[in-house]
Specification:
Elements (H helix, E strand, L loop, with lengths): L4 H4 L3 E2 L1 H13 L4 H20 L4 E5 L3 H15 L4 E4 L7 H9 L3 E3 L7 E7 L11 H12 L1 E7 L22 E5 L2 E2 L13 E5 L11 E2 L19 E5 L5 H10 L6 E6 L12 E4 L2 H4 L7 E4 L7 H13 L3 E3 L2 H5 L10 E3 L3 H10 L8 H12 L2 E4 L5 E3 L5 E3 L12 H16 L2 H19 L5 H6 L1 H6 L4
Parallel strand pairs: 1-8, 2-3, 2-5, 3-4, 5-6, 6-7, 7-9, 10-19, 11-12, 11-14, 12-13, 14-15, 15-16, 16-17
Antiparallel strand pairs: 17-18, 18-19
Helix pairs in contact: 3-4, 3-5, 4-5, 7-13, 13-14
Length: 471
């Protein structure tokens, strides 16, 4: 069965996986030179449109990323752009030498940097593992500073592909980064992703690697069935605690993300001034959790960490329905309380570190690596939130999220995320799917809100975000 290119192009590959994918293409009958031509012309066309007839300077390194640069320069010359290639080192691979020989334009060694309009960085690509030499770093900085627009091809030079770690300090910021063949982890990982500007992908025909993470996509949601009622759409219980504002924010979001019925379950804490559409029930925790119609539970926002909070937390875990654990609940979770129902953990970085300590995990590697380790240890889906959010499932599947609005760095937005995820979990009970749907809705609601929104405004925007995901 042919692969769906939309699915294939959403995969995020390590350096090793990308090399294996290219090897598969070569084994199938293509050549390195043909792949370089496809990648370079694809990137060159993007650069041509961005340049809009302006002069372009292309910095070519000695490897195949530099070879891509020569193809880009040739493509631009063929379409009438003025092009200068800067090559501080001679091509060192057969494919790069071939590309250099085919380029008939002006090549300089970069000793004299001339200001220009568009600068294209093809110095080093995704295979780089060590810092740039001082003379190349200086040249890269000078060229970027001397041009109005900076474009990186494959990855910005000086970035480690599998982690997003800058290998040098003071690397230039880019206006556009053009990925070749497949997305790499650094395109979506901080701090590198913050320096890449807009992102474009050139398809060179690589095949799907089943083990690779996927990029978060717009979910395909459906409206309620014609015969739906509130319980069939999902009853979500949100357990309140010491601080009433956080669970109320979560409930406000949950009401707008698909669940048919949302209840705020109070067990003696401060009384919440709830809107009329939110049902508030009070009583002992065992009685509140006794409703057999509960589809999912959310506990953690505003819960507290005292003895009463621990008792509520233990009762929720024992209830054994699909559950979202957020905020304070994450600080109470340990190996002594095994998770038997489908469960989603939504830690930020500080909570993630606490969970790793509690489960004797070593906090090493990328955020994705750490999330996978915690998901395996807990048997839960882990949504590690932040500017570069990742989702890891117990079966090893993983998702990377595109950068969302930086205006989400505000108090209460995590409570809104928990409510969105829990609402989706209540509708169908699939933890992995609910985490992805909720995270996408969170980012889309932020986009719809524009700048400087409150967490309450974010929660209110959830229904508009959901409308954009309806199939």
């Amino acid at each position: 069965m042919p692969q769906h290119r939309d699915v294939t192009l959403s995969q995020v590959l390590t350096v090793a996986q990308m090399r294996a994918a290219e090897d598969d293409l070569i084994a199938g009958g293509t050549t390195v030179e043909a792949l370089m031509e496809t990648a370079g012309r694809g990137a060159g066309e993007i650069v041509r449109r961005v340049a809009g007839g302006r002069a372009v300077t292309v910095l070519c390194g000695p490897g195949n990323n530099g070879g891509d640069g020569y193809v880009i320069a040739r493509h631009l010359m063929e379409h009438g752009n003025a092009v200068t290639v800067v090559a501080p080192r001679a091509p060192a691979t057969p494919a790069a030498r071939n590309a250099r020989n085919l380029f008939k334009g002006h090549v300089t060694d970069g000793q004299a940097v001339v200001p220009g309009d568009v600068f294209v960085d093809c110095l080093f690509g995704s295979g780089l593992t060590r810092a740039l030499p001082d003379e190349l770093l200086v040249l890269l900085r000078q060229l970027a500073a001397a041009h109005a627009l900076t474009v990186a091809v494959d990855l910005p030079s000086g970035v480690e592909s599998d982690t997003g770690t800058p290998l040098n300090e003071g690397l230039p910021r880019n206006d556009l980064t053009i990925a070749l063949g497949a997305w790499k982890h650094a395109h979506w990982a901080m701090p590198a992703s913050a320096t890449m500007g807009a992102l474009k992908l050139v398809d060179i025909g690589v095949t799907l690697r089943p083990e690779a993470p996927r990029l978060l996509q717009r979910p395909r949601l459906r409206p309620p069935a014609p015969d739906a009622h509130k319980y069939r759409r999902g009853l979500l219980g949100i357990v309140a605690g010491a601080m009433p504002g956080a669970p109320l924010l979560a409930a406000t979001a949950a009401l707008r993300a698909g669940a048919g019925y949302v209840k705020l379950l109070e067990t003696g804490g401060p009384v919440v001034a709830a809107p009329p559409e939110l049902v508030v029930q009070t009583g002992a925790i065992d009685a509140l959790l006794g409703d057999d119609r509960l589809s999912a539970l959310l506990i953690g926002p505003g819960l507290g960490r005292d003895h009463a909070a621990r008792a509520r937390f233990a009762a929720v875990i024992a209830r054994c329905v699909p559950t979202v654990l957020d905020a304070d609940a994450l600080m109470l979770l340990g190996p002594d309380l095994p998770l038997k129902a489908p469960t989603i953990l939504t830690p930020h970085e500080g909570e993630m570190a606490a969970l790793e300590r509690a489960h004797a995990l070593t906090p090493e590697g990328s955020r994705l690596t750490r999330a996978k380790a915690l998901a395996a240890a807990c048997g839960a889906t882990v949504l590690l939130k932040g500017p570069d959010s990742v989702i890891a499932d117990p079966d090893g599947a993983a998702t990377l999220a595109p950068r969302a609005s930086s205006w989400l760095s505000a108090a209460g937005t995590g409570d809104v995320l928990a409510g969105l995820v829990a609402s989706r979990l209540a509708t169908h009970g699939d933890a992995a799917l609910a985490a992805r749907e909720g995270l996408w809705l969170h980012g889309e609601a932020a986009r719809l809100c524009g700048p400087a929104f409150t967490s309450g405004e974010l929660a209110q925007a959830a229904s508009r975000a959901l409308a954009g995901a309806l199939a």
